[in-house]
Amino acid sequence: MASFSTSRPKSKKIIRFLNITFLFLFFFYLATSYFIDQPTEPKVNTNHSLLLQESVKTDGCSGIHDYIDYKSKCVYVKSHIGCRSKGYINYLQVFYCSCGQFSMVGYFLLLLWLAVLFYLLGNTAADYFCPILESLSKLLKLSPTIAGATLLSLGNGAPDVFASVVSFTRSSSGDVGLNSILGGAFFVSSVVVGVISLLTGSREISVDKSSFIRDVCFFLFSLCSLLLILIVGKISLWGAISFLSIYLGYVGVVCIMHFDHYRKKNRLPVYGSQEEDFLERGVPLLGHSDHEKPTPVDKTAVEDQPSSFCNLDSSFSHYLGSFLYVLEFPLYLPRRLTIPVVSEERWSRPFAVVSVASAPILLAALCATHQGKEFESRTSLVTYLIAGLIGVVLCNLACLTTEKSNPPNKSLFPWLAGGFLMSVTWTYIIAEELVSLLISLGYVLGINPSVLGLTVLAWGNSLGDLIANVAMAANGGSDGTQIAISGCYAGPMFNTLLGLGISLVISSGSKYPSAFVVPEDPSLYETIGFLMGGLVWALVILPRKNMRLDKSLGVGLLAIYLCFLSLTVARSLGLLRLHGVS
């Protein structure tokens, strides 16, 4: 997912709206969970009670639509194990019990929360994950090509990767992760490439033939490997590791081609000064330049606010500006207080000290939650005490080794490693809740959750790629177009190989020495078929057009995606029924 700037006025308004939405939903959840729902339990008749007792023995929560009145559905949700959310909020209970007969209110609240989660997922990657990866690439002195094939792809694909891992490891709905990864890959490689081709067709811009064929062929090989795994229906630990290692082979080929290109072009040794030449051209490693980087929330934001209220009293505008500044805190502070940030622009010693102290406690809470242990238990209490002790030690070290005005220059790697770990933790937490919400929405709407993963989750995670890559191609000339097209294939391939690869390794490792049974979803064959059709179309058309992007490529790719989308929507609405696909 591409980075977004948070310094523009429109973005500020959106952020405040999302923060106000979060506060409203938070207090609504507290009020309905602890004050309204507690005193009374909905009553149902005897026939419904007997039916509920029988339904508890079934799997899943699909039987919710067997009942008409909301009280019966509420009892079903509370008594049925399959309806319990794998996240932190029981969305079905909120919809059927808290909202009750006001179903439209329930839909509205769930959609608002969906928007907040999408914002948090993208903003965490943009404001924390990507800057940390950029600093790591500079600290490790990685060449731009290697950084682009590894850290750039990791930064852009973090939401998709973690959503896939969560769906396999926590939600027991691996088909959501599979459909999300493949749906996002199809959207980027078809819609984004198609839009770029239509916008740049009149300029007759050519892309590098060797890089394009390399990326598309590796992508096709990855999809063929995945198709073989789905046909077999199960995979061992070593098979999952082999699938994951395909990406290492891709990175190796990228590095060899990069070094060979520079050796021929510049007649320099392999270990020349490629990185210095690249940096001198001012091209950013992680997809955004300095003026596009998200600006931190600081005191200057408060000082700038009164200027937009020039017709008001200065003291009133000051308080109003301060109030608007505070409204940005609910979604900002929890992450800022637990993710160490050592960039020059966002350095704050108090935040740094507090973050290293609170980060171990958050990790301990996450471990305790996943293990199903209560805080009062002796084991969890010891875990929290150890985490608190580690936090105190790290807090004292941070106080002794940092300055108020500047971030640390020495021993920077532990800070970056800690920031990387905590940004990954937050991305995992948000992705876990997002997948849980989509599964619950699938039950509420009567739609297979995998269809929501294929559409809503895939579109939400790929929207940033659409905006960033199209803008880069439209404004960056031939070089910008080349970077955008490369990202449209390298990024989805990274998500497919690492997102699904890591998920399969974790899942098969938990079943070792037995094989892991891959979730059955016949629609996956359809998705992979259309995705491979789009890749083959591009692989055939571009060389015939001398690698020039034109309208024939764009129209063909968009037509393929629209056919696939029409088929998916028709099937989900019951207008079309394929053999073995529900």
Automatic annotation (TrEMBL):
Residue ranges occupied by any Sodium/calcium exchanger membrane region domain in the UniProt entry: 111-254, 416-567
Pfam family, one: Na_Ca_ex
Claim: Transcription is one of the keywords in the record: no
Gene3D superfamilies (alphabetical): NCX, central ion-binding region
PANTHER family (alphabetical): CATION_CALCIUM EXCHANGER 1, NA+/CA2+ K+ INDEPENDENT EXCHANGER
Single Gene Ontology BP annotation: potassium ion transport
Topology within the bilayer: Multi-pass membrane protein
Protein name: Sodium/calcium exchanger membrane region domain-containing protein
Alphabetical list of InterPro entries matching this protein: CaCA_antiporter, NaCa_Exmemb, NCX_ion-bd_dom_sf
GO CC terms: membrane
Organism lineage string: Eukaryota, Viridiplantae, Streptophyta, Embryophyta, Tracheophyta
Family listed: Belongs to the Ca(2+):cation antiporter (CaCA) (TC 2.A.19) family. Cation/calcium exchanger (CCX) subfamily.
Keyword Oxidoreductase: no
Keyword field: Antiport, Ion transport, Membrane, Potassium, Potassium transport, Sodium, Sodium transport, Transmembrane, Transmembrane helix, Transport
Cell location: Membrane
GO molecular function: antiporter activity; monoatomic cation transmembrane transporter activity
Chief place where the protein resides: membrane
Transmembrane segments: 17-36, 102-121, 142-158, 178-200, 212-231, 237-259, 351-369, 381-400, 412-431, 451-471, 483-504, 524-542, 554-576
